[in-house]
Amino acid sequence: MTGQRHKFSCASCGKPFTYWVVDGNSHPKPKCYFCGKDFYPNGEPPKEEAAAAAPAVVGAPAVVGAPAVVGAPAAAPEKPA
């Protein structure tokens, strides 16, 4: 992974810290080591760039390789009296 360390000052607490930024990332979102807040030091990324960075998958199964449930669920077994 190519990139460089950059020095940032937290927007909440004001403390300086370093953060690794990958080459080509014009809008990094560092997390402050001291207070834990995320922020965009270069401003919010454009909406199309944010959407391309995290594509949403609608209707994907929760577990990969899990069988899909089709039809009515199986009835619970009866307990002997």
Give an overview of the whole structure.
The chain is mainly β and 81 residues long. It has a domain at 1-28. Helix content is 9%, strand content 17%. It has one helix spanning 47-53, and strands spanning 3-9, 16-22. A two-stranded antiparallel sheet has the order 1-2. A hairpin with a 6-residue loop joins strand 1 and strand 2. The longest helix is centred in the middle third of the chain and has 7 residues, at 47-53. It is elongated. It starts with a strand and ends in a 28-residue tail after the last helix. The mean pLDDT is 77.
Name its key features:
single chain, 81 residues, mainly beta, two-stranded antiparallel sheet, 17% strand, elongated
Strand percentage, roughly?
A: 15-25%
Name the shape in a single word: elongated
Structural class: mainly beta
What's the story with the biggest beta sheet? Answer: 2 strands, antiparallel
Sequence of strands across the biggest β-sheet: 1-2
Helix coverage percent of residues?
under 10%
Succession of helices and strands: EEH
Mean pLDDT: 77
| Alpha carbon gap, first and last residue | 65 Å
Q: How many helices?
A: 1
Task: Report the C-alpha radius of gyration, rounded.
Answer: 23 Å
User: Which residues sit in consecutive blocks of at least 5 with pLDDT less than 50?
Assistant: none
* Count of strand segments: 2
